[in-house]
Amino acid sequence: MSARRPAAVIVLAAGEGTRMKSRRSKVLHELCGRSMVGHVLAAAGELEPERLIVVVGHRREQVIEHLAEHAPDAEPVVQERQGGTGHAVRTVLERTGALAGTVVVTNGDHPLLRGATLAELVRTHEDEGNAATVLTTEVPDPTGYGRILRGPDGAVTAIVEHKDADDAQRAVHEINVGMYAFDGKLLAAALRQVTTDNAGGEEYLTDVPAILRAQGDRVGAHTVPDWVETQGVNDRVQLAQARRLLNERILLDHMRAGVTVVDPATTWVDVQVTVEPDVVLHPNTQLHGRTRLEEGAEVGPNATLTDTSVGAGAVVTNAVTVEAEIGPEASVGPYAYLRPGTVLAHKAKAGSYVELKNAVVGQGSKVPHLTYVGDAEIGQGSNVGAGSVFVNYDGVDKHRSVVGDHVKIGSDNMIVAPVTIGDGAYTAAGSVIVNDVPPGAMAVARGRQHNIPGWVERKRAGTPAAQAARRANDEAEQRPGPGES
Ligand code: UD1
Ligand code: CA
């Protein structure tokens, strides 16, 4: 990190972003669990600036609301009309007054840029005692970018925008990334000299280096070796490319820290997810939000986890989980849906075609097949039979059920809340449980079976069923009875 905290970082995010073709502000489009401007602010935040300022203009209500929610430290400054990047910074400095010390300016549409790179930019700037330091890189195709012009001694003399460049200048592959460190006082003075006399008819921030140099101030450059990190996003094609690059970076970090990623091409992990060593991520796994996986957990294939915690050694296969807590050595899926408020304790199981919501399943308890458990608490060592439903909704209100320890709920039960089933109780298959069951009782809540002999032969005479019944009855009659030979 830099020796001193910069006086400010100014993030430029007022532009229209026409090429996104969106109702949403360009900088609010998301990748890897954060908005584009959120990534830029996270990188900027690593510098611990005295002030973090975001210039807003187009769709400013959306951006201001987003900042209030996700980056409350950031101060929005409105640029009423988008008069160019120089105009944007001038608008800020007219609001704040000239800022003493280092002022970093960065475009808002570069989500791949690392905080460490911004810190190096600031360090170069301060070590060299520059008035301005420009972040540059060499790209294979510089079309559209501002080109870096250097003098015979290699020093930066100016930045020329693509639109304004001649053929010789366009042949330059070293570009202006769109990040700068300035001396705040000199920046404010230089911006007053910037004109709109150019192909874009805008006040270019990129005119500042030449203005400073002309008055004898030092202008330097900090060059990033890996140009990929400097890529901007102007349309949804570049957004998808940036998302894949950022995801690759996230996965590499996890793999280097001891996580097995079986198929990086189909595994997507958001920036704020934490994964401990010896976790295995199988193909088609998506980890979103603040999901947290503990040591040795195994997730996927085909799992999408959002804001979910998974305990050590748990296994989650073919599942969708949202705001769920999966305990150590618990097992989920295949084909399970865990909704908010689900808590599976140590070694608990939510099996195939099982949906849980706002439900606690105690240690070692199992909900193995075809079951919905909503608004319930199940104790330890209990089992819920296949095809059961915790009937939690009476059409107006939701109610809660409580199941004790070592309870065996039979298959195809309806547990009609609110109801309490005591420790060690059993319920018979096919029961509709509407009343509490005392500990240790067997609850039978279904019609008693009653057979009508000969009904099929009388009422369905001549059908294959009647014929089959006839044969079975004849064979039974011919069989020797007890004691006969
Ligand atoms: C800018 C640079 C160019 C550089 C490129 C890198 C200028 C004049 N040119 O060009 O040298 O190679 O970035 O991507 O700066 N913005 C405002 N207010 C405005 C205009 C723009 O806030 O009035 C914001 C935009 O939202 C965007 C950033 O500034 O985040 C850059 O603006 P953009 O129009 O995209 O500049 P480029 O043409 O990409
Ligand atoms: Ca741009």
TrEMBL record:
Region ranges (N-acetyltransferase): 258-485
State the UniProt keywords alphabetically: Acyltransferase, Cell shape, Cell wall biogenesis/degradation, Cytoplasm, Magnesium, Metal-binding, Multifunctional enzyme, Nucleotidyltransferase, Peptidoglycan synthesis, Repeat, Transferase
Q: What is this protein called?
A: Bifunctional protein GlmU
Free-text function comment from the UniProt entry: Catalyzes the last two sequential reactions in the de novo biosynthetic pathway for UDP-N-acetylglucosamine (UDP-GlcNAc). The C-terminal domain catalyzes the transfer of acetyl group from acetyl coenzyme A to glucosamine-1-phosphate (GlcN-1-P) to produce N-acetylglucosamine-1-phosphate (GlcNAc-1-P), which is converted into UDP-GlcNAc by the transfer of uridine 5-monophosphate (from uridine 5-triphosphate), a reaction catalyzed by the N-terminal domain.
Decide whether keyword Thylakoid is in the record.
no
Q: Which organism is it from?
A: Thermomonospora umbrina
Positions of UDP-N-acetyl-alpha-D-glucosamine binding: 12-15, 26, 79, 84-85, 146, 161, 176, 234, 339, 357, 372, 383
> Where's the MobA-like NTP transferase domain?
9-143
Q: What is its EC number?
A: 2.7.7.23, 2.3.1.157
> Which pathway does the UniProt entry assign to this protein?
Bacterial outer membrane biogenesis; LPS lipid A biosynthesis; Nucleotide-sugar biosynthesis; UDP-N-acetyl-alpha-D-glucosamine biosynthesis; N-acetyl-alpha-D-glucosamine 1-phosphate from alpha-D-glucosamine 6-phosphate (route II): step 2/2; Nucleotide-sugar biosynthesis; UDP-N-acetyl-alpha-D-glucosamine biosynthesis; UDP-N-acetyl-alpha-D-glucosamine from N-acetyl-alpha-D-glucosamine 1-phosphate: step 1/1
Membrane-spanning ranges: none
Region feature (Disordered): 458-485
